[in-house]
Design goal:
Elements (H helix, E strand, L loop, with lengths): L10 H13 L1 H17 L3 H17 L1
Length: 62
C-alpha cells in the first residue's frame, strides 16, 4: 500500500490515520517507500502531455 484512504467526512478515521503516521514511524516509512515507488512508475509531465496529444490526435483523425 502506498497511501491511507479515508472516506470523505469521516473525521474520526482521518484523525486515527494521522495519529498512526505520527506514532508508527515504521509504518510511515513503509508508506513513503511505497509511494515513491508508485510515483516513479507514473509518467512525467512531458510523457503525460505526449500521451494526451496522441489520444486527441486519434480522436480528431476519425
Amino acid at each position: 500500500d502506498a497511501a491511507i484512504l479515508v472516506p470523505p467526512g469521516d473525521d474520526q478515521l482521518l484523525a486515527a490515520a494521522l495519529s498512526s503516521l505520527l506514532t508508527d514511524r515504521a509504518h510511515c516509512l513503509r508508506l513513503a517507500k511505497a509511494a515513491r515507488k508508485y510515483g516513479a512508475a507514473l509518467p512525467d509531465w512531458s510523457q503525460a502531455a505526449r500521451q494526451f496529444d496522441e489520444v486527441l490526435s486519434e480522436l480528431f483523425a476519425t
